[in-house]
Amino acid sequence: MVRPRRAATTALIGSGATITGFYGFLIGEAMLARRAIGTSDERPPSPDGVYGDDLPGRPIRLLVIGDSAAVGYGMTSADATPPAMLGIGLAHVMDAPVEVRSRAVVGAQTSELMQQIAEVGDWEPHVAVIVIGTNDVTHQVPPGTSARQLGDVVRHLVEADCEVVVGTTPDLGSVRPIMQPLRSVAQRWSRNLARKQTVAVVGAGGRAVSLGDLLGNLFTENRDIMFGLDRFHPSETGYANMV
Fold this sequence. Notes:
- By secondary structure, the chain is an alpha/beta fold.
- The protein contains ten helices and six strands.
């Protein structure tokens, strides 16, 4: 009776060691990917301002919050950033001036969105655009936790009579600096988070846009023009397609 127990114990220990080794390998891959991608605190010139100021009517107030994709990381001019592109496009569609304020932060996670909203004080936006999720994946925030936090943010804005549009987590399977098998893990995690985000956003009264479904194949097949120099963040063309 003792020998089977020892065999079972040995098998469990061996399995545990294999799992531990696998996760250790993934952590190592993640560190190498972050080193290859690099980070910077530099931001593009501020896109804040009024777009279409020659158009009639009172300005539509547009708030942009989120992570580096919302900031426009890597761009050297304000007009090349998503907030400016959104301001220009919305002014054209609505035939009205649009006042843009961007409070997105490079490296931000969903848990930081409320602080970004607080930074505009009593400036009450009519529309809010949120792009978030990538850093929740890379920092291994449980998808359920991340989605609930996003739902709370959307609900907060909707209750203040603000229309909310959320660009859900991009498909990280298209990012080449993330090596296999970590890339496959990141892809599954990002797709799972995007699905949970969609449910949370719609449930809170917002609108969700699946960036992974819309842009995943486009970025994968045209990565030479869709990604910037770090091969992780979008290029100006990539941001334009995102917006």
